[in-house]
Design brief:
226 residues, six-stranded parallel sheet, three-stranded mixed sheet, 8 helices
């Protein structure tokens, strides 16, 4: 099975390469997802599965550069989806927990969505085209680098987020399975402060408002319980 991944410089791609050394890494110079001729280039390598992780993920960058963000996160994703539809490929799309409203937490894949910010709206735009790929998997998740990069962390922002070396194996397992549709991937409920404290000493601080983006991961657990 030949697996390719977009987003060469991203932490998920780098972690997947450690787990799967023969993964085909699609860099943005040779495989620019905004290029309308992308499909022709992809067909030359003819992957069985594409993990689409390439995106503008920085919230401030998305807000300040809406056109670039639309072209990359929405149009670029539709180009990848179009190829997968035309050539009957499996597409695994890395979305975000920010798709959910962020109030009650414990969100199931079937719960209503209300994107939390501009970045989440672009990821929802990507989800729309991915949904039309017959063999698709949309993964809603959140992960960070191997160490927490700040000196302070929120005590009133709850998540199922974890470090990339924890989440990446779970994503790869789901990628290589037959699961389709939407899948939440995360670990136990925790505050960002508790998440940071796993690997770094940080100072606790509070956000202006309480938020809860924890994910219900029963579907993932049931899928791999045997």
């Amino acid at each position: 099975m030949k697996i390719a991944i977009t987003g060469k410089s991203g932490i998920l791609s780098q972690e997947i390469q450690k787990l799967l050394p023969d993964v085909i890494v699609l860099d943005r110079y040779n495989y620019n997802i905004t290029d309308p001729t992308l499909g022709n280039k992809l067909q030359r390598i003819n992957p069985d599965i594409i993990i689409h992780a390439g995106a503008i993920t920085d919230i401030i960058t998305v807000k300040n550069n809406p056109v670039m963000s639309i072209m990359t996160n929405i149009v670029g994703t539709s180009n990848v989806a179009t190829y997968c539809i035309g050539h009957k490929k499996r597409l695994v799309y890395i979305s975000t927990d920010y798709i959910y409203e962020g109030r009650t937490g414990n969100y199931k894949e079937t719960d209503p969505i209300s994107p939390h910010n501009e970045y989440a709206w672009t990821k929802l735009g990507g989800e729309c085209s991915v949904t039309l790929v017959p063999n698709h998997l949309i993964i809603r998740t959140s992960f960070g680098d191997s160490e927490f990069p700040y000196d302070e962390a929120w005590t009133n922002h709850k998540v199922s987020k974890d470090y990339v070396d924890v989440i990446a194996p779970m994503i790869l397992k789901a990628t290589q399975s037959n699961i389709t549709g939407i899948l939440n991937i995360g670990t136990e409920s925790k505050t960002i402060y508790e998440y940071a404290q796993k690997r770094n000493k940080v100072q606790p601080i509070k956000k202006t408002t309480n938020t809860n983006f924890t994910l219900n991961t029963e579907k993932y657990a049931k899928s791999f319980s045997h």
